[in-house]
Structure formats: C-alpha cells, structure tokens
Amino acid sequence: MAGTSRLKVYVTLKLNDFYPRKHLYKSPTQIAIFVLAVLILCSSCEEQLKPGSEEHIRAVTGAIDDKRLIAADDEPGNWLSHGRTYAEERYSPLDQITTENVNQLGLVWSSALGTRRGIEASPLVVDGIMYFSGPWSVVFAFDVRTAELLWRWDPEVPREYAVIACCDVVNRGVALYKGKIFVGVLDGRLAALDAATGALIWEKVTVDQTKNYSITGAPRVVKGQVIIGNGGAEKGVRGYVSAYDAEDGRLTWRFYIVPGDPSKPFESRAMETAAKTWNGEWWKFGGGGTAWDAIVYDQESNLLYVGTGNGSPWSRFHRSQGEGDNLYLSSILALNPDNGELVWYYQTTPGDNWDYTATQPLILTDIEIKGKLRKVIMQAPKNGFFYVLDRETGELLSAEPFTEQTWTTGVDMKTGRPIEIEGSDFKDAPFEVAPSPLGGHNWHPMAYSPITGLVYIPALESKMKFTYVEDWTFTPVRGRSIGGQKVEGVDPATGHLLAWDPIQQKEAWRVSHISHWNGGTLVTAGNVVFQGTGEARFVAYDAKTGKALWEAFLGTGVIAPPITYLVDGIQYITIVAGWGGIGGLHHGLPYGKAAQYDQIGRVFTFAVGGQEPMPVYGTVPPVRAPNYEVSVTKEQLTTGASLYSEHCQKCHGRNVVSGMGVPDLRRASDEVHTTFEPILLGARINLGMPSFQGILSNEEIKYIQAYVISEAEKAAQNQKENDG
Ligand code: CA
C-alpha cells in the first residue's frame, strides 16, 4: 500500500517537472511516458496522498536517496540539496519565469518567523514541502501549497554562543535524505530530524564544546553519510571535517585539516606531510583551517571537495614563526568520500596571514578552455582571485583578480602560488590590505549559468589596515578572538553583483549596490538572475546584461540566496530574509530605508501573477534620551567607546546601533541602566548576555555605560532635529 502510494507521488513529481517544459517530451518515448504517467495518476486520483499530510511528506522525503541526489538535475521542480544539485551551480533549468514576464512577479505568500538575526539559509523543496534553517539553528518546515508552518524544531542553543560564534548565530541550511532532515547546530551538534514531524531521531556532539567551536554551515549527504565541518579559527581551534552515518549518526571518518601536536601520532598521512610545513608550537593555538561552508561532491570522479579556513591566529609570525605554507589552511581539498583520505589539494593562500579563507562556495561544471572541454571546479575565495581548477587532478587552469588586491601582484602559473607584495605581511609596519577579512567575496553563494557562461558573484570591495601586535601571548578566553593583530577599516566597504566570465577570466558586467553586504544569487534558464540586497531589495536582473527587470521591498536586509522550484506545475521563487551575519553585526542597521523597520525574519514566495499584498513592516520606535546619568571625564568616555568596540560592538552594533535581535542599547530602559553593572557581570546570562566578570572592571563598565548613554542622547537629538 505504502509502496504504491509512493509510486503515485513520484509520478506526480515527474509530471510537475514535465508539465511546463514542452521541449522535454518531444521524442515518442517521452510522449509515451508522459501519457502513461497521466493514466496512472488519473486512474487513482482518489487514492492520492493529501499534500502536506504526514503520509505525503514521508513518501516524498523518504524517496530521496543517493540516486535522486545524483540525478537532481533531472528534476528541476525540486531543490533537493544545498546548491540544488551536487555541482552546486545554483542554476535552475526552469524557464516559466523569463526576462519577458519577470516584471509580473508578485507575492504568493509570506510568513514572519519571529526572528531578528541573520538568515543565510538556502531552503530545500520536495513536492511543495519546504525546509530551511534560521537563527540559532532553528529548523522550519513549510507547506508551499498552503503557506502553513508544518513544524519548527528548536535545538535550544545556549545563548552564550552569540559570543562564541564569530559571525552571528546564523545557519546556511539543512540536508534531506531518506526521510530525515539534517542540521548542524551552532553549539557543535549535528541533528537528524524526522522530515514529516520534526521529531529528533539522533543527535551527535561533533566538537569539544569546551573550546570555541561553532557550526554554521549546511551539512551535505554523500553516499549515506552526513558531512559536516566547523568554525572558530579566530578563536584557537583546530579545524576538521567529519562524516556521520545518516542512519544512526555513527562517525564514519574524520579528516583533520591542520596537524596537531607532532609528539603524538598523526591521524593521517596527510597530517604527517602537513606538519612539515608548520613551525613553532602551532598546535597550542589550534592552527585553524576550519571548514565552515563549502562541501561539494562530484559523483563522476567520486571526490568530495572541501574549502578550508584561515589560520589561527591570523598572523603567520605568531602562528608558525612566519615560516612555512601551513598546510592545509586556505585550500581546496579533494577527499575520498569513502574513507576521508586526501587525494589532492590546492592551497589558495600559502601561509595565510589575512583571514583569507577558501571556504567560499565551490561550483563544479564543464567548460571549454583552449578548445578542450574541462571538468572544472570554480571558486572566488576571500583573497580576491577567481580560480578555475581541473577538478579531477587539482591542476590550476587559471587565476585572476576579481576585486582590488594590495597583497599580491598575481598568481605565478608555474608554481600556482600568489606573488606577495613586500610589506603586505604587516610585520614591520602597518599595511592596508585589500581584500579585507570580509573578502572579495564571502560565504554568499554565487551562481553559474551554462547558457550565459557567466558566474554571478555577490562581490565586495573592502580594505583594512592591519597592525602587528608584537607583544602577544595566546590566552584562550571563552568566546574571545585570540588576536595577534589590530584591524581597522580604511574606506567603507562596498558591494556589487559581479557577472564574471570564467573562461576569459574577466568581468562581463556589474551592478553596484548601496550595501556592502548582500544576498547570494540564483540564475535560471529564463535568463534571470535573482539577488537580495542589504537595503532589503529583492531584484531580478537580465542574466546577459545586468539590466534590472523587477524588484520587491522585503523590509529586512537580505543576505541569503533565493531558490526556485515547481509546485503543481507553477514556478515559484522563495527567499528567506533576515539581516545579520558578520556584515550585519559590523554595520548595525541595514542600509537605506530598510533601517527604519523592525528587522523581523520572513520567508517570501513569489510567482508570475502573484496577487498577495506585501506585508506591512513594523517600524522601530524613536530613540529617546535615557533618564539616567553617569558622570565621567572626557577621557573616560573615550575609554568607554573603545571598550565598547572591543567587547560589545560584535552583538550590539557599531556606534551602539543594532538592527538585530540583540537590543539596540540606545533604546535601553531606565531599568537596564539602573542594573547595568549586574547585567554585565552575568545577571542576564540565560538571555544570552555573557558575563564580563574578570574581563571588565566596575569602573570600565561605568565608562561603557556613559558611552552608551552619550550615543543615545546624540541619536535622540538628531531625531529631534530631523523631526523639527
Ligand atoms: Ca575567519
């Protein structure tokens, strides 16, 4: 019984895929299959599972196995894994929405998620059932047909993780396999949930939770294993990637990215090799290399590609006495997914010194280079080079800058190594480094269209001044960056959508944004590129020219990538919006008019002809000057400002301006001000406010409070002037 139901549902799915794509069923065999499918479906319509019912969800999610994931390109009606297919091109063959009709796109439904922090997730969709993750690794399941929230799973992450995680309490998405939803939890857990109910099936702690590890990346399922990495390279951890059996959560293998203490046995031959490229006592600082985002699988070569992170600490002089390549930091690794052994590697930034992660999204495709079809892997990591590598061998095919670079003059194609500019290591004098640690491109997914041959990169331009801190010792503090250098912004960072030709290695077109921090991209066979921005615009562009064709205002800054799929034959676009991430934390409010609204996370679904009105976004109340005074000298106020930027800014925003879930302290109540000191010493630890006991003195807390009050007074005064 269950078996036949499953078949029928599967047939429905295939029909959905066939229906709008007339060009697909032109051969006699295809027509015959189509007619047969219609007959099977209609002879048993009354027995069909009710869409959105537990039985329906069990049937459609239970059928997602290795075969379906490998052949995901054959069912564009679904979005089955992180970047749609294992190749993660984020290109959809759907073509109902085109450059001609995208201006008729309208809202079909939206739903407020009750969140106020960054949302970075790519949703998954199978037969109209949608899954995505939000802040604090909470998982949501929606029925696209009814806009109904089917279930919500909250892993109840301890709120101190707002400080332990480097870059907001974000999560990039879930994985789906054989009826289970997998999510990496901020505190280092990996959880398997029942896709139909959200009930927890198994849960594993993947890290040493006494250390500053976090997980924000989406797991990928490959050959029955759930692959997950971790983050924390700013905070003294050692990176690795792990594989767990999807069925029961048993650890099947673990690949360490940097070597541990060489007096102990190496975990792999790769670590023995890597240890020869390190100096000093790096293992005491963790070494870093954390793989916190890109994990991509190539079924043809049976290779699993992992992008690895920066060194811990950043400065190679503190980390490795300034010598050695420090394998496998800032690298693309090709692993054997069956045992986790290293097959090849390419290190983008040998001896990383600038937080130049190579964790940025990886795309697999086949392109013609010099008259030869090459199987390539492409990446635009933080260091500002766009790389094209042969994905079977790791051979570097090309590397050219896609943003400003002050640290290098280019890649030596003979050695594959970047040529560093003298002084860029900032050892002897401060140096203005571009790209900054924000990267020429950060985690925001890029998309590649085989039709236009272009990669659509959510790119950044930013420069920061690095100053070496000579007098540095490793003192790990829960949640604190381990330091070793001072970094200050030079000019405000800017962002743009960059269309890049990976064969010519040159820009095709760009669209500048007001915001430096914008969403990931999606490109479709209708030749439309979609991207959200940090000023809450969701925009559709012509993929060939960059001409803006349509836009909607989403109320909150957008950083996540959109997806597209079919339900009952209609093409939809979904985007989950929520301002935050490291860019949101730094900037405080989103850009433009979005800044006046309450930054509530929302999921939006659009289609051609959608008629729903856009939601009414709540505005934030004006800042009023607090009825509380702290008397300090001018010097103490300045000290308060610098203490604030060291300890508070990361959550409460630069210049005490926060648009996120953490309170905007300019709006703090009188009650908060009267209990300011106990709050800083741990009175609200359960609400996520960490304790600064032993870190800040009572006097220093007073200076910070005085600074907060002075910023609130300034804002209130500005408002009065604007209103008057
Ligand atoms: Ca980093």
Q: What is the topology, as strand order, of the major beta sheet?
A: 1-34-35-36-37
The CATH class label of the largest domain is Mainly Beta
Q: What about the largest sheet?
A: 5 strands, mixed
- Given the helix and strand composition, which structural class is it? alpha+beta
* Relative helix content: 10-25%
Would you count the extended β strands for me?
40
Span of the ends, CA to CA: 72 Å
Task: Indicate the proportion of strand residues.
Answer: 25-35%
**Rounded average pLDDT:** 92
Cofactors, ions, other ligands: calcium ion
Q: Overall 3D geometry?
A: globular
User: Per CATH, what is the topology of the largest domain?
Assistant: Methanol Dehydrogenase, Chain A
Rg, rounded, reads 25 Å
Q: What does this entry look like structurally?
A:
There is one protein chain. The protein has 724 residues and is α+β, with helices and mostly antiparallel strands. The chain folds into 3 domains: 76 residues; 507 residues, Quinoprotein alcohol dehydrogenase-like superfamily (Methanol Dehydrogenase, Chain A, 8 Propeller), CATH 2.140.10; 90 residues, Cytochrome Bc1 Complex, Chain D, domain 2. The protein is built from 13 helices and 40 strands. The strands form 11 sheets. It has a 5-stranded mixed sheet, with no helix packed on it. Strands 2-40-39-38 form a 4-stranded antiparallel sheet, with no helix packed on it. The longest helix has 26 residues. Bound molecules: calcium ion (CA).
